[in-house]
Amino acid sequence: MKMKQMILVVLLIAGISYQSKAQVPGVPNASSTQTIIQELGLGKVSVTYSRPNVKARKIFGELVPYGQVWRTGANAATSIDFSENVIINGKDIPAGKYALFCIPEENEWTIILNKQVDQWGAYTYDQHNDFLRFQVKPERVPEEQETFTVLFTDATTKSVNLTLSWERSNVTMHIATNDDAKIMANIEKLMAGKDIDNLVYFNCIQYYYVNSKDIEKALKWIAKAEKDYPAKGSYRLYKSRFLLRKGDKAGAIAAAEEGIRISKSADDGEYLALNQEALELAKK
Predict the structure, then answer these.
(1) Given the DSSP bridges, would you call strands 139-153 and 79-82 parallel, antiparallel or unpaired?
(2) d(Cα 45, Cα 235) in Å, to the nearest integer?
(3) Taking the model in full, what pTM does it have?
C-alpha cells in the first residue's frame, strides 16, 4: 500500500471512530451510556457501557451471533476499571482499565479482558491483547430484560458479582479482592492513635465483626469506645454480638439491654431497634 493510501485509510478510520463516538448536540444516542461504580475492599470497580434495547428482535444467536466476539453492549466497547488489584477466575488482575468483550454461545460464554481500551465495537479487537479469558455458564431467566443491563450484586468487602443481563440471559462473573492484610495493618495504625474518632472505632470494630476477627481484641476496643463515647448504643450492640459469638449469652443479654437503655435516652431509633433484635437473639 502506498503512503498516500495508508494515510487516507488512517484518516477514514479516525473519522468514522470520531463520528461514531461523538453525540450530536441536542440529539440522544439510540443506545444510552451508563457508568456504574462499586466499592470493593480498598478500591472501586467501574464499568462504562452503552445500553441497546431488544426492540422485538432475537438477540443471542442472531443480532449477537454465537461464536463471535461481542463488544458487550453497543457503540464503544464496554470498559471496566479497577482502582486496586483484583482476582477474577483465580487470576490476579493488576489495577487498571480493560475492554470487556464476550463470546456468547448457547451453553457457555467466554469473558475477555483486553488490554486495548477505547475501541469502537469489536472491529479492531486483537486477541493478542487479551489479558484474561475464562468461561461462564449463562442463566436462562423467565422475564425478558428489554434494555441491556450491567449490574453489581452480592457485594461484600471481599467480593462482588458483575452480571450482564439482556433478553432472557444472565451471565455473571465473580470479582474478588485480597486487601485484608492491608486493611488489618491500617486498623492497627488507626487504633494505636491517642484520640480515636467515633467513626474510626465503629468501622474498625465492625470490620472485625463482619470478617470474624479476634473477639478479645474487639472487646477491648469496645470497652475503650464505651468510655470515650458513652452515649452511643452502637458499641453495646457490637459488644452483645461479639459476646454471643463467644458463647457468653448472659453477657450478650446484659450488653443489649444496656444498649436499649442508652438508645432510648439518646432517642436513637435505629440502634434501639438493633439492640432489641440483639437481645431477642441472645435470649434464644
Answers:
(1) unpaired
(2) 31
(3) 0.82
